[in-house]
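Figure 2 data, in text form.
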Amino acid sequence: MDSTFIAARISYLLMLMDELDAWPEVKVKDFSALQRWYNNFLTKSIQIYSGKVSFSMASAHRRPWYRKNEIPNTEIEKYCPSEILLLTCTVDVHKGNLAVAVWGWTAGMRCWLIDYIRIEDDTEAGCEVIESMAWVELGKMIDERAWKANDRKVYQLALTFVDARWSSSTVVEFCSQYSSGVYPIMGDDKPARGQRIKEFAEFTTQSGTTGYRITVNHYKDRLAPVLRRNWRPDEGLQDEYTFNAPVDTTDDELRELTREVKRKKTLPNGQEEWFWHRPGGAPQELWDLMVYGHAQVEILAWMMCVQHLEVDAVDWPWFWNLLKEQKLYFSDSK
């Protein structure tokens, strides 16, 4: 082989090593793939943190300015670049209850938990049937519920996602009652082998309506560092993606953000990769619902920019400014 070619390849690989040594500075869509390539091709080690979120880390996100079902816009605007611009809802489905989280979003994806409840159904059929009173109550929340902020802005839900992994036919039937704004979702740990890495993708349900597949590990890898990162009011403007919880969020609810941990496994071919380990038993729905909430906002921005404007990518400044200037998802009460 020509020595000039070999020298050029070595130089190129050295350049890649230098770039990858600084990998925390860039956005990585598939961390496991990066790790395998780095370890096996470049024969260099790469350090991965466990992703564990402690209870003390999670509880540090409680804010003293508001309680559940309150929207403290006058305080939020002191620490975020906007007030709450929209509310979204995410739902996890079980036989005996619907776990429902309502999220408020400011510019830059600062996230405020507005409410977290379980709509119970202790009947024999439970939430497996569309006639369940739990589904009726969820429908009333979507159709009729409004939240008033302390600056007199009024909000209704802009978007609702319902997890269809359990009793998918019932979830699809519920969502198909709405022409838009309410969608079934399926969470996948990672794309199937050979598929292009995507944070989310549309799918068509058996009834012909639209749903969304969400690559949950992508969002978990992003959100675990956010939950480990503390913020204090004396620091001023919150970083993007900062999570905020009402002061009356219970300890048990916050512990639902702490139970998954990243572990390493060896594949049949001898390669190693990291995965999110989900212990059985204890509830952790709020973690899933937070993941789905972040996917919601990205999907909404994608709908507006890519689908409707037919541009190549999401223009985030334009998206946030549109929500604020046009008041798409809130109104001023008299």
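Caption note: The chain has ten helices and 14 strands.
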